[in-house]
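Field guide to reading this record: the first block holds the primary sequence, the second block holds the structure written as discrete tokens, and the final block holds curator observations. Each block starts with its own label. This record concerns Pyruvate carboxylase subunit A, catalogued under organism Methanobacterium formicicum.

BLOCK 1 — SEQUENCE
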Amino acid sequence: MFEKVLVANRGEIAIRVMRACRELDVKSVAVYSDADKNSLFAKYADESYHIGGPSPADSYLNIPRILEAAEKAGADALHPGYGFLAENPTLGDECAKNGLKLIGPSGSVIESMGSKIESRKLMEKAGVPVIPGNSKGVTNPDEALKIAGEIGYPVIVKASAGGGGIGMRTVYEEDELLRALESTQSVAESAFGDSTVFIEKYVEEPRHIEFQILADEHGNTIHVADRECSIQRRHQKLIEEAPSPIMTEELRDEMGSAAVKAASSIGYTNAGTVEFLYSHGEFYFLEMNTRIQVEHPITEAVTGVDLVKEQLKIASGRELCCTQEDIQVRGHAIECRINAEDPLADFAPNPGKITGYRSPGGPGVRVDSGVYMNYTIPPFYDSMISKLIVWGSTRNEAITRMRRALSEYIILGVKTTLPFHKSMMLSPNFWEAKLHTHFVDEYKQEITDNMMKIIQKDKEMEARLKSTFLPSKRVAAISAAVNSHLASTISDNSKK
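BLOCK 2 — STRUCTURE
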């Protein structure tokens, strides 16, 4: 096992990786920007190094500075978490040059899966079902019209190098296609430096179902069951659950086998996720995420497999912890992404200072977070505050438990997505698992009406609670004292 791992990330995922390191008796190293100098993850690590200004380009995307910190710390491995550098194909090569082991797949695999066109070709070759469409870039308008005509409308125009829903346009009629092609190419060039786009058949009311993959360096590959991630806004996930409510053992075997085939065919190693669209009894390869996923805790909750510890073990050369037959799904888990966003203003980011904070607890409740009372959420990064995860013996119990946990969660000072999640847990259509990726848009009025009522109740509760929170100056003093104590305790433990 490694002796020291540098975590090239921030927030809750940095703490999650550091917790796994601590349980494996591995020292952790944090890197932080100007904006994160008072962050919890920087205090939690055994060692911390400042790497630059608040912008990602000056810090968490700056490979030379991160590698310089790794050298100073004497780290022997690097965990990229998710986002930032996690899907940068050059990171592995740069790590190797500096004597570091990258905890993740090879750069060539990351590069091939990062291109939607290349990954589509590879999946076709491997015999994995893909959505009807073309497998090469489109730049010529006449060619685009011909392809769309052959596939049949509606179609979707995608940026080949895209991700997170960026560079995607749905087209319902021929008259819209050329405008969509031009718009998507422009967005793709601006966001990814690559204007290549391609066209696929638009799948109506699809469910987004993904399979967790683990693969070691000895040729063993398994799936660690499924997750449903259909509750999204602008193609970005808001609520995930495991297993998918529609999953049967037969369907899990079929989709899981396709996911394993996809990973094995490209020589994949470490943790990854194969994502599918499912509609009317058919499933199609969507993409592969070559990293740990935000929603990995729900898989851990229903299978008992610590995915991050497995990442570390695999990268250190060990074989997988278990076989495919060992993976059993028990109960049901749901994750709500709690973001500093205003759900009534189209989920606009709302960074700022947290003036009151109390996380939920009790049976079957887990909170992965990187914030604390009086912490200021910076405007430079993703707006996620935390992930609230619950487990229940059944889906209905999990929803009921999530409702209870959400009612206990108090975050004052910034607008959050808590009202949205509370509204979702009241939705009859969510309870009945009538899920698809356009759910939030289809039931927008119902969700909004419920949120308005919830927000009014929350305001009344906040007014009662404000007196229970300490004045901000006193909180700042207490936070500083706690952080100082934590840092000194960690330092003492490191010496021991």
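BLOCK 3 — OBSERVATIONS
The chain has three domains: 4-103, 132-201, 207-461.
The chain has a mean pLDDT of 92.
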